[in-house]
Design goal:
This protein is mostly helical. It is 81% helix and 0% strand. Helix 4 packs antiparallel against helix 5.
Length: 296
């Protein structure tokens, strides 16, 4: 139908035009169509190129090439300054050493897409780390409002509620996170910490065990399970967990401090003092008091 209408209109138009004027109009029409085609090709190619750099950045980030990923995110944003997802992902990458830059990227992502649930969740996590608990709660609430199936947002909000003293609310959020994602190791870990605080040692042990089953390389969970095993009288098991936590993360200061306390309890002061020294070196200044008291 479209070619027929175009030809019919062209026929009516030529009926009242001279051949000379028609030739001029035909040239102008051809030029206009060529310009429009070139413009369309340019912008389509531009978008394709921005997406290509974005895809490359995601791949590099997954391979641990953070510098290469940053370059590609930067290039994607240069080519498409309205690429909300690229701003969000670059923000995550910046969090390690450039929190101000990460905040700017999250803000821009949300400005470009006010319904971007992941960007609200990520910004909430950053605000929480920066001490803005109220702002973090607002962002987590908004993320969940936009995406009620975000296990990550429920887990993050649960952790914030836990530190704010709302343990009942934290439990609800952890339960929901696990319901949404039954393989969410970190949510099991966090719920295990909460259950231990609430006196449910059996439930805590189940959650820690499940977290380690799902993620056998979680130094965090091995370190958290250690004190619970101590409480239950399994000193040998606790030592195994502290050893494994340190094996997985040789710079895990709290694990050294926990192991030192257990070594002291078992009468191994030489080992305890060595662990306290390492804990101090890694930033736990309180361990220095133990060194002064027990390590002559």
């Amino acid at each position: 139908m479209i070619p027929f209408l175009f030809n019919h209109s062209f026929f009516l138009f030529t009926k009242f035009c001279s051949k000379k004027s028609l030739a001029v109009m035909t040239k102008r029409t051809t030029a206009l169509l060529t310009f429009l085609a070139a413009t369309c090709f340019y912008f389509c190619k531009l978008e394709e190129t921005a997406q290509t750099y974005f895809d490359s950045a995601v791949k590099k980030e997954g391979l641990g090439d953070k510098a290469g990923a940053m370059q590609d995110y930067n290039r994607a944003i240069e080519l498409n300054p309205n690429f909300a997802l690229a701003f969000n992902n670059r923000g995550v990458l910046k969090e390690d050493g450039n929190k101000a830059g990460a905040m700017q990227d999250y803000n821009r992502a949300i400005e470009l897409n006010p319904n971007f649930a992941s960007a609200f969740n990520n910004r909430g996590f950053l605000k929480d780390n920066l001490g803005d608990k109220a702002g973090a709660m607002q962002d987590y609430n908004r993320a969940i409002e936009l995406n009620p199936n975000s296990a990550n947002a429920f887990n993050n909000r649960g952790l914030l509620k836990y530190f704010l003293g709302d343990k009942a609310g934290a439990m609800q959020d952890y339960n929901r996170a696990i319901e949404l994602n039954p393989n969410y190791a970190l949510a099991f870990n966090n719920r295990g910490v909460l259950k231990k605080d609430l006196g449910d040692k059996a439930g805590a042990m189940q959650d820690f065990n499940r977290a380690i089953e799902l993620n056998p390389n979680s130094a965090l969970t091995f370190n958290n399970r250690g004190p619970l095993k101590e409480d239950l009288g399994d000193k040998a098991g606790a030592m195994q967990d502290y050893n494994r936590a340190i094996e997985l993360n040789p710079n895990y200061a709290i694990a050294y401090d926990n192991r030192a306390l257990l070594e002291k309890e078992r009468g191994n002061m030489k080992n305890a003092c060595a662990d306290w020294s390492k804990a101090v070196e890694l930033g736990i200044v309180e361990a220095y008091e133990e060194i002064k008291r027990y390590c002559k």
